[in-house]
Design brief:
single chain; Rossmann fold; 45% helix; 2 domains; eight-stranded parallel β-sheet
């Protein structure tokens, strides 16, 4: 008999890498209509749910908010930054007020959305906690940043429910308080599944050393999505044209590289790839955006890289609102991919397209690719500091072929989630 499952902490589908994982959870749990709690507060979850187009296409879903407020001032400046931090501090008080009113059965003081969520938690047997990326930005406020990411899980733990954290990724906490909070939460989960080795080792050594038996490895959920949803269709490559997919990510301040230098590196690399393995064919450069452009604009990088490549071949701009199906088609049209997005590299790998990855951060998630074999990753912050023998990198990328292992790990995901939900 299947356990009644509640899925919590969905983020936007507008990053299609996240969308793959969120669709995968819905398909794996396979309970309809599904109830999904969003990682947005009681004041904005209805607006936020509009960004879950791929998840909604899978089946009927009812969304609820997290038991918190979520106000965010997007303007840059010290005043906006301070206001955002104070809201995170206030949310600890808001959350505990809501939980106290629930315990005292004074439910009319609880906002409708939060009251519905707590009712769903109470009626559920297992809580599927969508994996979070725990990365504190400021030492002083790290505790509050982590708390903001965990309100649904904490509410479930308070109500003595079995919580399964799927696909957790953790950076080294910067504060004692942040480490303490993660330790308290994870030690009270039924299972914590890390999605790569760096997080697995960090959790085992520093955060869950006293509850190692609860810590497990879970392959990236996108593996299941690809095996289930990407059909084995005809090859979409044009034999007369060598197509290089370019998946950009505008550098941010922490990357230590200018947009112009990043664009030069990507365009020079694309030119060398075309000259090395294009076999004299016409060259096409195809931009692919992993995220909806209005959500994560890459206009400047696309314009600069496109200008540099236009003299070498045809340049095709990206779709502004690509669906997951659009991405599948786009990657199947490519002969080679240069990607600054992790799931761009994963999709390339699954479809048998060689790639060179240019990670935009030091996130542990890139270890997902390294676990599968000896791939080519050139961190964005290092591309100006080191010499890169391009011919060797291209040869190495052509040898990376993890498809069979990805399919095997997709089956492992099914077995793990079926064990959680009690599905036969």
């Amino acid at each position: 008999m299947k356990n009644k499952a509640l899925i919590v902490d969905y983020w936007s589908d507008y990053n299609r890498g996240d969308a793959m994982m969120q669709v995968a959870i819905l398909q794996l749990v396979d309970q309809w209509p599904s109830v999904v709690a969003l990682d947005s507060g009681i004041n904005e979850y209805k607006e936020f749910s509009k960004q879950l187009d791929e998840s909604k296409a899978i089946g009927p879903i009812e969304f609820t908010p997290s038991p918190k407020l979520s106000l965010y001032f997007r303007k840059s400046g010290k005043l906006s930054n301070l206001a955002n931090k104070l809201i995170m501090v206030a949310n600890v008080l808001v959350f505990h007020f809501i939980m106290l009113m629930w315990k005292l059965r004074i439910k009319f003081l609880i906002p409708n959305g939060a009251r519905k969520l707590l009712g769903e938690i109470s009626a559920s047997e297992v809580i599927i906690w969508n994996g979070r990326n725990f990365r504190g930005n400021k030492k002083l406020f790290e505790f509050f940043e982590f708390f903001d990411l965990c309100t649904c899980a904490i509410a479930s733990i308070y109500m003595k429910k079995k919580v399964y954290a799927l696909g957790v990724s953790v950076w080294e906490p910067k504060s004692v308080a942040g480490s303490w909070l993660l330790r308290k939460i994870f030690s009270r989960c039924e299972r914590v599944y890390a999605r790569e080795d760096v997080s697995l080792q960090l959790l085992e050594k520093n955060i869950m050393s006293g509850s190692k038996e609860k810590l497990k490895y879970l392959p990236d959920l996108s593996f299941f999505y690809m095996k289930k949803n990407i059909a084995e269709e005809s090859d979409l490559r044009d034999s007369s044209i060598f197509t290089i997919g370019v998946v950009p990510k505008d550098p941010v301040k922490r990357n230590g590289i200018s947009l112009d230098n990043y664009s030069k590196f990507v365009s020079n690399l694309a030119a060398e790839v075309a000259g090395s393995i294009g076999n004299g064919r016409k060259v096409r450069f195809k931009f692919i955006n992993q995220a909806v452009l209005e959500n994560e604009p890459n206009d400047e990088a696309i314009e600069l890289i496109g200008k540099k490549l236009s003299s070498l071949g045809e340049v095709i701009g990206p779709k502004s609102n690509p669906s997951l199906e659009d991405l599948s088609i786009a990657y199947r049209e490519c002969d080679f991919v240069i990607s600054s997005r992790m799931h761009g590299c994963i999709l390339s790998s699954y479809l048998g397209r060689p790639f060179i990855g240019i990670p935009y951060d030091r996130g542990a998630k890139w270890g997902i690719l390294e676990r599968l074999g000896d791939c080519v990753l050139l961190p964005m912050e290092e591309i100006e500091k080191k010499q890169h023998p391009t011919s060797q990198l291209i040869e190495k990328s052509l040898r990376y072929a993890p498809r069979a292992e990805m399919d095997r790990e997709a089956d492992e995901i099914v077995s793990i989630v079926n064990g959680i939900t009690g599905k036969d």
